[in-house]
Amino acid sequence: MTNTIRLNYPQHVVSLTMLEAIEVLKSGPFGVFLTFNDPRTGELVQKLFPFFYRPHNTYGLKGRCFVSEWLGLPVYIPSDLSLFIEGQQDLNCQTRFLIQEGGFLCAGDYKNETFRLEFLTNIRVDTTFDTDFLELLSRSGHGHLATDVPPGRAGRGESATANRKNESVVS
Prior knowledge:
Layout: E1 4-8, E2 13-17, H1 18-26, E3 30-37, E4 44-51, E5 56-57, E6 64-70, E7 73-78, H2 81-89, E8 95-106, E9 109-120, E10 123-125, H3 160-164
C-alpha cells in the first residue's frame, strides 16, 4: 500500500504524497461529494461540498474533522487523509459512511437528530462550488466562498494584534 493520494483537478488527476497533498489542500477550498438525508426536512442531499484544510477538534466520536454546512446544518468529514488514501486504493472502500448528530431549532425547541452521511474518497481541487446553500461559509455575500476575514473583524482564534494590524497609531 503506497502513501499517495489522488487529487482530482477539472481536467486531470495528480498523485501526490500526503505532505504534498496537504500543501495543495491548504491553498484553497477542496470538494468532497456528500450524500445524506437532511434531518430537518427528510430531503435527500447529494452535492459537492467545499471544505477548507483547517481541521477542527470535535468532541465525541468524530475526533478531528473538516467542517462544511448545508443550509446552516454543519456536516463533518474526518480530517485523516489516510482514510481517503485507503478508499482510493480499495475499490470496495471508495464510499465511507458516518453517523452524525445535527442540532437545529424546531418550533422554538432545540432538537438533536442523528443522520447517516455518505462521502466519496475522491477529493476535487481547483473547482467551482454552488454557494447558494452555504449560508455561513459564504459570508462574502457575492456568491464566492468567504476565504478571508475583513480587517477589524477577526473571529475566534485570532489574536487582538490581528484586529489592530490595519489600524493607524495616533500619538
